[in-house]
Amino acid sequence: MIEDFCKNGDDMNNMLMLDMYAQNIAEMVNWLMNDVGVTFQDGLIFQAEYQKDRVLYPVGAAKGLTQCLIDSMEAGDAEYMLDTRATELITQDGKVCGVKAQGIDKDYVIYADAVLMASGGYGYAKDLLPESLQSVLYYGPTFATGDGQKMVMAVDAKFDLFDLGKIYPNGVEVAAGTAKSTIWPNAAAFSASGILVNLDGQRIVNEKASNNDLKQVLMEQPGQIMYLFMDAESFDAFCSRAGENGISDEEIAAWLENNGSCAPIFAHGETIDEVCAIVGMNAEGLAATVARYNGFVEAGNDEDFGRPAAFLAKGIGEGPYYIVEQKPRFATTMGGVVLTGNMEVVNSQDQVIPGLYACGEMANLVHGSNSPVGANVSWALTSGYLAGEAVAKALNK
Question: Do 322 and 382 lie in a common domain?
Fold first, then answer.
């Protein structure tokens, strides 16, 4: 696992945090299953970022996982406050001892023996983002405003990798500057016969490569766009998993009605010539690509890009055909605070800031330059579990 993460993260990972992650992720999963009530689909899922199948998929996807966590919290005696925005850390003699917060009609001053920052990233905070991320389509939550980062900056917390963000290669532009992910619909299409092509109609990559490799190819394309080409069976598979990424049947129907006239491009036609004319793609090139790909399927070997044989089970069939845009998308920030092995935040002098802990995207250095599939969620859970244990131990609870 450590080797996979270092390779994927360009060896920029915080090794202390990565070792903690690797040593404790199994315990965290047991906690989820035994104490929180999370269930997982059978088996481990293939993702090219990993040498071995590592990905567990929760029943009900992220929504189901989140609901289990909420139910577990509500079954205990934890108090939580909605519509209440933390704005400032309270310190006394160098120790963090609480927070100030703003409610809808009331301000709060809340004192505590320890403060755990689990406030997420800063992907929606334009004032904190580097130039390289300013123009990338954003698909994350609008509450990722960097409030937590600004709060800990005020107490001299040490940061690293603050100029990095996780760019995925599978976005569709649903509004100006805003994307939705098609990562799971794409996976379904690739399990059938979906392929990735450029405007010349040529395949440009192994569709089952890592997201990092797919991203590199995408960013080299004119206009930073490539296209997912599908026959009817592959498109049906694509649609069957769209809801897992928050794309509704109604949205897909509307995009198909627009038929490539505006973003996002969801073009369709009865023939290759028809669908290519809509997006300005070379139809002869795409027809030749389809014939070549189907030859690889028949032979069980992708001579061009090495798509695994398990994903060469079906050739591209008759029309109608569909072309869906693929653009870079971004939400997760890689930068974060530096922690001790006890999940404590350190300052610019590498000294512990007493009373201050962090987890999740707030302390995301475990991934290095790029996070593999599933790792942001599992790091949030593992680091949150460890931070909770550390705070409880410090407070003798």
Answer: no
Q: Are both 207 and 73 inside the same structural domain?
A: no
pTM of the model: 0.84
Q: Which amino acid does the sequence have at 100?
A: K
Give tens-digit pLDDT for 296-341. Answer: 999 999 999 999 999 999 999 999 999 999 999 999 999 999 999 9
How many residues are present in the chain?
397
Dist CA 223 CA 327 (whole Å)? 9
Return the amino acid letter for 209: A
Q: How far is CA 329 from CA 10, 75, 93, 182, in A?
A: 20, 37, 43, 10
The answer to whether 202 and 227 have CB atoms below 8 angstroms apart is: no
What is the identity of the amino acid at 222?
Answer: P
pLDDT exceeds 70 at position 364? yes
Residue 348, both tokens? 């610019």
- Based on C-alpha coordinates, what's the Rg of the chain? 23
Give the three-class secondary structure for 275: helix
CA neighbours closer than 13 Å in the CB half-sphere of residue 136: 26
**pLDDT of 49 strictly over 90:** no
Going by their DSSP bridges, the two strands 321-333 and 137-138 should be labelled as parallel
Nearest by Cα to 12 from 183, 197, 162 = 162
Say yes or no: 200 and 289 in one domain. yes
The C-alpha atoms of residue 365 and residue 342 are separated, in whole angstroms, by: 15
Which CATH number covers residue 198? 3.90.700.10
Q: What residues contact 377, with CB distance under 8 A and at least 6 apart? A: 62, 65
Q: Is the peptide bond before 264 cis (omega within 30 degrees of 0)?
A: yes
Does residue 42 share a domain with residue 9? yes
Q: What domain range includes position 288?
A: 167-329
Whether residues 8 and 135 fall in one domain: yes
CA distance 259 to 121: 35
pLDDT digit string (tens) for 157-171? 999 999 999 999 999
Amino acid identity of 334?
M
pLDDT of residue 397: 67
Task: Return the pLDDT at 272.
Answer: 99
The rounded percent of the chain whose pLDDT value lies above 90 is 93
- Over residues 191-203, the pLDDT tens digits come to 999 999 999 999 9
Number of domains forming the structure of the chain: 2
